[in-house]
Amino acid sequence: xxxxxxxxxxxxxxxxxxxxxxxxxxxxxxxxxxxxxxxxxxxxxxxxxxxxxxxxxxxxxxxxxxxxxxxxxxxxxxxxxxxxxxxxxxxxxxxxxxxxxxxxxxxxxxxxxxxxxxxxxxxxxxxxxxxxxxxxxxxxxxxxxxxxxxxxxxxxxxxxxxxxxxxxxxxxxxxxxxxxxxxxxxxxxxxxxxxxxxxxxxxxxxxxxxxxxxxxxxxxxxxxxxxxxxxxxxxxxxxxxxxxxxxxxxxxxxxxxxxxxxxxxxxxxxxxxxxxxxxxxxxxxxxxxxxxxxxxx
Length: 297
Prior knowledge:
Elements: H1 2-16, H2 19-26, H3 30-44, E1 49-51, E2 56-58, H4 60-88, E3 92-98, H5 105-117, E4 121-127, E5 141-145, E6 154-161, E7 163-167, H6 169-173, E8 189-192, E9 198-205, E10 211-222, H7 225-233, E11 239-242, H8 247-252, E12 256-257, E13 262-263, E14 267-273, H9 281-296
Parallel strand pairs: 3-4, 3-5, 8-10
Antiparallel strand pairs: 1-2, 5-14, 6-14, 7-11, 7-12, 9-10, 9-13
């Protein structure tokens, strides 16, 4: 590394024409610059500069060596410029991981305008409900829903997702009206999760504040919310669905809400990044776009 530093000093001396001017450009004293040149000549065992009281001139070896040093200096400048671009403007590849439920309009509405405004930005999306290793997959940011595990990752709370009890009209029409939480126990449950067929369901009445906690047995367990939604639309049973993701199905009547006066705990929506400091512009811009889009829904 010291040799690289001396090469940069040497190239700067040649460009500026003197030790004093090179020192001013590099934030060094002229004597410190001269010392670096002497050490460079000692390490290469070649004289690089002719020094007179009026000017510096390159030796033949110095001229050849300068071309390589100038390339090193130019690469360093380009790298510095590239870092400044990454810091100040959204450029490069942005890698985002999110649950599959975000694969439709939520992500498109947030990120399409960002891509249109910044041609130097590209996007790679990873949709899966299982948590992805951000470091191993070089993920810039991830969207996660629900309770977060303790980790070294940095989480920013975006908002909360309201969960609704949903079923298709065909499924509900074939059964007595559902008026109380206890009646949910006799239904076919479709659940998002792991291999466990049973889960706890917590409900609170919006008016009276009454609380009910039920243990339900799932007929279908799936690790993909979109597949689970299709089973629900097909009349196979009841599932919990994020309100923000099923607006069209509710508006068209393809899904109906059970016990609308009974509320389920909301799920937190978080943006997670590997670190808080020194975020490149592409990450800062993406966080702002996602925050604006998701919170406005």
